[in-house]
Input
Amino acid sequence: MLPAVPPPVTEQPKPFASPLQPLSPALSQATPSVAQSVQHGIDHTYYLNIFDRIMTTVLIGESHLFSESEQKILQTFIDLERQTRYIYTRLFMRKPTWIRITGLKYGNAEHVAQACKTLSVCRPCGTPFALGESDVTDCEELLEMMQLPELRELAKRRGLKKMNSKNKDTIRDAILKQTKQRTVLSFFKKGTDSATDRFGALIKDAVSITGPLVKLNPEAVELFERLHLVYFRHLLQSLDDNPMKVAVLALIGKLRFPNYTVSRSTDLFESREAVVQYKELLQVGEQMAELGMSSVTVVEHHRQGWELYLAYRDRWLQHIKRLPKQPNASDGITYWRRRFTAGWALSRIVGQGAKFAAALKQFKDEEQVLLSLLSQTHYGRDKRGKWYERLVLVQATHLSPKKCNKEPDYKERFIVAQTAARKHCIRALADPYVNRVAQHRIASQLLTIERKLEIDPQHSRVVPALSAEWLEAPERTVYGVRIKNHSQRGASAWDGNDGIPCSVEELAIWRYQDDGYQGIHSENTLITTLFGLVFYDIIFSPLPGVLDTEYQSAPLDMRSDSFYFSRKDMIEQRIEDIKTGRFMHYLTDTYDLQQGSEIIGVNWEYTREWLEMICQCI
Output
């Protein structure tokens, strides 16, 4: 276990006028210190301690992001008994489905049952915190959570035979099929035999087997998710990637974060509507990203992703019309804040749409999507190089007629397509937001296009410095014995010096060791580790609004040009220190004080001695 991190120095937020009480007595008395909760470990109440801290922090500084009715709901939750709030926090960390109350091992069974009942009967503004078995309306969801013996018992009660040898899916399908159909006897019975009645009877039978159930009310969950979004500054994406879980791991010493001064801002989000829209669009973007991970052969997933893009296309086109044409004077420093706006989330959806169009080979649609992205510079500046590259490829290759085309206007259409691609190459090379690597690739594309158009070199728009081939690294040939892989899947395996199969990278290291060298396989982690350690104090310098919680491995502006503009003088000075060789103490001091901390890019598998030796070689 890593040593527990000392609490960071946190600036106390100023009092904030709010319809809520500044701090409910129930909340202030029921939130012991972190040290106390870990030391006593009473029912793992650190979940509740963090939950309470999140609510307190947001409601003191950013309560204006919630409506009066939402604030009333939150205040009612704060006033609930500690045990009831604790049960809610544990349910909040679980999958949003029906759960057996008897299966909740969060303390005394009677107390747990009473807490669940309280959550379901407490209805501030008509919104209960939880639902009970009487609220079940979805039969499929209920059957999904039932175990195999329970489904067999339910099938038996429903008169279904020969189900003892069947699996869960088969039994579920049989039960649902039977419930949807009217029986012959029902035609001779008095009264109704509607589908609603049949499914209601099914739910009653199922609940009699499972016992009391509880499920968090989706409306209340949405409110608390939004509260956490405001606090953590990013979405609760999944149970495995949940910032609440990260906070708990940090509290119990399983994760360690750097020591830095937390300087939380209260104006990152403009309004409640801005947060609601931002959350909605983030969730759509996550859904599209998940669909986009499918192979191109899974056409249905890519069609679903394209349909999602189409649902937001007009909204995007209207939005970019309202954007300012020229950046303001402080744009370089404040650009990162756009990452937390609905417009940025919308641009992400559009970017995903271009990928789905490409997967579906809808190249004309892809061209239009890329043109809309490149028509603005408000979002995605770091992606403009890739957008230009793809647009040129689409126009010069996919939308250009092939040589085998015997249509009479082939030559004319070919020139039109290549000319359009050349125009965007020239525009990309003049774009101040296209980086040097992308410029080099685009310059190569331009050179190829001008050759196809047979443009006179005197009229060429290719910049020699950009189109010139880069120096190639010297090649070393390493020989080894490859182990035959019958499955032909995964990385290749080789016979290592110790007789144990190894990767090709490990084989190369073995050969260098035979020649008296030492080596490591690092990809890019060696460079990112040196950067994180040598620039640590600059990365975590206490600038306003970029270090909003104690659970950050990087400042909020890290992945934007704003990171450089906000720290330009410090970065330039550190580069001078590196040039003159006066930088080793930055590395060693950070390594000694922050070893094991979650610092962006840092891989702690490298020993201090290794890193010092590499720096000396540099």
About this structure: The beta strands are 99-100, 130-132, 213-216, 482-483, 493-495, 501-502. The mean pLDDT is 87. The two ends are 34 Å apart (CA to CA).
